[in-house]
UniProtKB/TrEMBL annotation:
Coiled coil: none annotated. Keywords: Heme, Iron, Membrane, Metal-binding, Monooxygenase, Oxidoreductase, Signal, Transmembrane, Transmembrane helix. Residues 1-19 form the signal peptide. Heme binds at C419. This is Cytochrome P450. The lineage of its organism: Eukaryota, Viridiplantae, Streptophyta, Embryophyta, Tracheophyta. The keyword Membrane applies.
Length: 473
C-alpha cells in the first residue's frame, strides 16, 4: 500500500506537467511578447505607416489563419477568413461577447453598447434601433438636406480650396447634434467637438494612465463630455415632464421616455455612455466614407461621370429650394454601390475585439476564457478568391449583392452586432454626395493614395482640394 501511494505521489506531478504541456500545445501558435505591451506598439506603428494589413498578412503566412499575440494589455487570438467572421458574428452570446480595448471601454464607458451582453445588450440595442428604424429615418431626410445646405454655405461657398476630412467631420457632427440630440450650434457644441477629438485620440492607445499620454487626455475629455451629456439629460427630462415635449424629438428624449415590456428603462448611465458611443461612431465613420468617395471621384473620371449623371437626373426633377426625399435616395443606386465599394477597400472600422466568456475551441486550438479575439474587416474585403482583382475599384461588384459570399463583406459588422446606425450613415452619405457633385467640381492638391490610421483612415493632409462652383441646373 505504501509503495502504491509513493508511486502515485511520484506520478501526479508528471501527469500534471504533461496535462499542462498538452494544454499549452493546444493554444494557437505565436508569441504573447512582452507582458502588457505585447505587440501593441508594432500594430500601432503599422497603422501609422498604412501597413497594418501587411503586418497581419505576415502573421498569416507565418502562423496560419489563427495565432496568438498580446494587444493593449490582453492575450489575444487573431482569426482570419469567412469562417472566422461567421464564428465571430454568429456565436452564442454565452460564448463570446463584444470586447473593446480597455482604452475604448474606459473612454466610452462600461455601459455602452460595445460592452454589453445578453439581455442588457438586447435591451439597449433595441432602444437604439427603435429610434433609428427606417420609418423614423425617412422623416429626417429633409433635415439632413437642410444641414448639408447650411454646411456648404458656411464652409464651401466662396472658397478656392478646402480640406475635406475635417469639414466632413464638422458636417456629420452637426447632423448628429441637431437630429439626434437637439443640440443647436453654439459654444456648448464647440466644446463637444474638442472633447470628442481628444477622446478619439486616446482610444487606440496602450492604456497607461500617465499625465503625458494620449490615453490620459482621452479620459479627461471623456469626463468633461459625460458631464455635458448629463446636463443635456437633465434639460431634456424637464422638457419632457414639465413642458410636454415629444418623445421622438431627439435620441436623448426618446431614451428617457422608453419603457420595455417589463417597464424596463434605460438608466442614466447607459444613456450617457451610449450617447458617447453614438456620437463617436457617427462623427468619424461616415465622415471618413464621404472623404474617400470624394478622393475616388477625383481619381476616376468614369465613376465620377456615372455618379454625376445619376445625381443630375434627380436634381432636374426638383423644384428650386425643394429638399431631397426618401424617394430620391432610393434612385441613387449607383452612388450607393460606389459607397459600398469604397467601404470594401477603405473600411473606416479596421476591426474589433470579442471577449471569450468560457474556454472554446476554434480551428483545432483552444481559446481560453478571458482572452480576446481580434477580427479584421479589410482582410476578407481584399482577398482575391472572394473579390477578383481586389485592388481595382469596381462598383459593379454590388449590382447583385446576393453574389457576395456571406460573412465576407463586413464594413458594418454582422449578425446581432451589426451597426445600428448603418441606414443613418447611408442617408448622410447620399445627401452629401448629391450636393457635392451637383454644386462643385474639385481637383486634388495631393495625388498620392496614401492614408494612415489613427484609428480611422486619414488621407494625406486630410484631403485638401481645389474647388470650383457649378452654375445652377
Amino acid at each position: 500500500m505504501n509503495t502504491f501511494l509513493t508511486i502515485c505521489l511520484f506520478l501526479i506531478p508528471i501527469f500534471l506537467l504533461l496535462a499542462k504541456r498538452r494544454s499549452s500545445k493546444r493554444l494557437p501558435p505565436g508569441s504573447l511578447g512582452i507582458p502588457i505591451i505585447g505587440q501593441s506598439f508594432d500594430l500601432l506603428q503599422a497603422f501609422q505607416a498604412n501597413t497594418a494589413e501587411k503586418w497581419l498578412e505576415e502573421r498569416i503566412r507565418k502562423y496560419g489563419p489563427i495565432s496568438k499575440l498580446s494587444l493593449f494589455g490582453k492575450p489575444t487570438v487573431f482569426i482570419h477568413g469567412p469562417a472566422a467572421n461567421k464564428f465571430v458574428f454568429t456565436s452564442d452570446i454565452s460564448t463570446i461577447a463584444d470586447q473593446q480595448m480597455k482604452s475604448v471601454q474606459m473612454i466610452l464607458g462600461d455601459r455602452n453598447l460595445l460592452e454589453l451582453s445578453g439581455k442588457d445588450h438586447k435591451r439597449v440595442r433595441g432602444a437604439l434601433l427603435s429610434f433609428l428604424k427606417l420609418e423614423s429615418l425617412k422623416q429626417y431626410v429633409g433635415k439632413i438636406d437642410e444641414e448639408m445646405r447650411k454646411h456648404l454655405e458656411m464652409h464651401w461657398q466662396g472658397k478656392e480650396k478646402v480640406v475635406v476630412l475635417p469639414l466632413m467631420k464638422t458636417l456629420t457632427f452637426d447632423i448628429i447634434c441637431t437630429l439626434l440630440f437637439g443640440l443647436e450650434r453654439g459654444t456648448r457644441r464647440d466644446k463637444f467637438v474638442d472633447c470628442f477629438q481628444e477622446m478619439l485620440q486616446g482610444m487606440l492607445t496602450v492604456p497607461v494612465n500617465l499625465p503625458f499620454t494620449r490615453y490620459n487626455r482621452g479620459l479627461r475629455a471623456s469626463a468633461k463630455a459625460q458631464n455635458m451629456v448629463k446636463d443635456l439629460i437633465y434639460e431634456k427630462r424637464v422638457e419632457l415632464e414639465q413642458k410636454g415635449g415629444s418623445p421622438h424629438q431627439d435620441l436623448i428624449t426618446y431614451l428617457l421616455s422608453i419603457r420595455g415590456q417589463d417597464n424596463e428603462v434605460i438608466t442614466e448611465k447607459e444613456i450617457v455612455h451610449n450617447i458617447l458611443f453614438v456620437m463617436v461612431a457617427g462623427y468619424d465613420t461616415t465622415s471618413v466614407l464621404i472623404t474617400f468617395i470624394v478622393r475616388l471621384l477625383a481619381n476616376d473620371p468614369a465613376v465620377y461621370a456615372a455618379v454625376l449623371q445619376e445625381q443630375e437626373e434627380i436634381a432636374k426633377n426638383k423644384n428650386s429650394g425643394e429638399f431631397l426625399t426618401w424617394e430620391d435616395l432610393a434612385k441613387m443606386k449607383y452612388t450607393w454601390r460606389v459607397a459600398m465599394e469604397t467601404l470594401r477597400m477603405f473600411p473606416p472600422v479596421f476591426g474589433g475585439f470579442r471577449r471569450v466568456l468560457k474556454d472554446i475551441e476554434y480551428g483545432g486550438y483552444l481559446i481560453p476564457k478571458g482572452w480576446q479575439i481580434l477580427w479584421v474587416a479589410s482582410m476578407t474585403h481584399m482577398e482575391n478568391s472572394i473579390f477578383p482583382e481586389p485592388s481595382k475599384f469596381d462598383p459593379t461588384r454590388f449590382e447583385n449583392q446576393a453574389s457576395v459570399p456571406p460573412h465576407c463583406y463586413i464594413p458594418f459588422g454582422g449578425g446581432p452586432h451589426m451597426c445600428p446606425g448603418n441606414e443613418f450613415a447611408r442617408i448622410e452619405t447620399l445627401v452629401a454626395i448629391h450636393y457635392l457633385v451637383t454644386r462643385f467640381t474639385w481637383k486634388l492638391c495631393y495625388t498620392d493614395n496614401f492614408f494612415s490610421r489613427d484609428p480611422m483612415p486619414k488621407p494625406t493632409q486630410g484631403l485638401p482640394v481645389y474647388i470650383v462652383p457649378k452654375k445652377p441646373l
